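Example 3.2
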Amino acid sequence: MKTLQKTKVVFLAALLFLGIWNENVLTGWAAGAKEQVLMQLETEAAVYEEATEDSIVVATLPKGTAVICMETESQEWYQVTYQEIAGFVKAESVGMYGDAAELSGEFEEVHEENTAQLEAAEAAGQQEKSQFLWGTVMAVLVALMFATGIFTVLRGRNKTVSTKKDNKTKEKQ
């Protein structure tokens, strides 16, 4: 019995430890998470190893280069990555990716295309529903015509049989 109690205590202690460790790891990751944004160099820019002009220049990137930026503690610098180059660039040389008017135009085109595709999909769905409805109506009508034909044939046979019986009865009299 004591072994079972010891096992329970060890198990609960392990769960508690894992819970505390997991919470610390997750909150540590969340605290260190930085938003990455695609931006563009507005001028030719030196990429520094550290966020200071006194550090080593890792590379020089031409104007118009798209870089992935993360904010730093200093508003004067962005941490950037480009292909396999990583470092810091002065914030003044980084701007929004692409021309704002051009991007608005592209977003509008995409929106129009998506709207047209959505309308086409809705029209196709309505057409499928209509085809299903009319197909069902046609199937019911064909079944009714078939049933009417069978009923007519059977009724005609019954009349023929009863007429023959009546004729035989008349002949016997």
